[in-house]
Amino acid sequence: MRSGSVQTRLDGETINISSVGVLFSIEANVELGDSLEYLITLPTSLESEIVRIRCLGKVVRIESTDIAATLERYEFVRASRSAHAENPGVESARVPSRRKFGAS
Predict the structure, then answer these.
(1) What secondary structure, in 3-state letters, does 63-79 show?
(2) Burial degree of 19 (CB within 10 A; 0-12, 13-18, 19+)
(3) Is the Cα dihedral 95, 38, 22, 73 positive or negative?
(4) Residue 41 class from Cβ within 10 Å (0-12 exposed, 13-18 middle, 19+ buried)?
């Protein structure tokens, strides 16, 4: 997931996906309404290629490590299997960085 210009990569697992949103399990510090960028890896029968979907959305529900987000925009991204991590089906996510402000 990514919010604004701050990027943090986290791995998670898709639980459910529909045409309007996704539910995934990931340990991330997000809040309701945060804008997200997330990448979903789809299973394929081809040995040489994987198919990913780069998505943009907003957090609409948080339950422990399960996050529900809208699916507002998406694009398909193709990559070779050798460029993919050892864990097919695991999504990559960028989350907003939470900074604490106050006196030191």
Answers:
(1) ECCEEEEECCEEEEEEE
(2) exposed
(3) positive
(4) buried
* Maximum separation of any 2 CA atoms in the chain, in Å: 55
Class of domain 2-94: mainly beta
* Domain boundaries, given as residue ranges, for the chain: 2-94
For 78, the token pair is 């193709």
> What type of residue is 26?
I
- Residue in this structure with the two tokens 């995934």, named with its chain if needed: 24
Query: For the segment 16-44, what is each residue's pLDDT rounded down to a tens digit?
Result: 999 999 999 988 888 999 999 999 888 77
- Give the containing element (helix H, strand E) for 102: none
